[in-house]
Specification:
By secondary structure, the protein is an all-alpha fold. It has 4 helices and no strands. The longest helix has about 50 residues, at about 115-165.
Length: about 160
Amino acid sequence: MGKPTVLALRAVLVVLLAGSVFVQAVMVPLLAIDLEELDANLAYLRTPFLVITVLGVVTVQVVLVCVWRLVTMVRRGTVFSHGAFRYVHVVIGAIVAAALLVFALAVVLAPGEAVAPGIVLLLCGAVVAVLGVALIVLVLRMLLAQAVARDVEAAQMQAELDEVI
């Protein structure tokens, strides 16, 4: 990966991380103020909605930090090592957690008439899509495992060749 590509990706990660901190620090409190004006029969939605929102932002932040670490490993040429798996596992876990949070939101909104049933169905579709992303990352993890195995094998063959010479 070239230096400009790494710099561009890091710039995007910084902007996304700053945006997520802005959402946590400014937008969530404003949302909490807006949700205080809910009808009394919908007031039960306020706390779960805010908790799900904050936790959802945290899952995004976790993924961004892990991608930053993986990009650092790519730049150093150490991404094809067992250390990269830790970050990939955390990314997969964060994506699955995000899917569970979207499902929890669907469950919270499903009873009563707070939202139309179609919205709950769309949220369930979003859960499937997010889990699909987790599966894609899992497949990429398998490719990383194959690359690490090939790298180890190549290092062993190089060591044997060095002994012969």
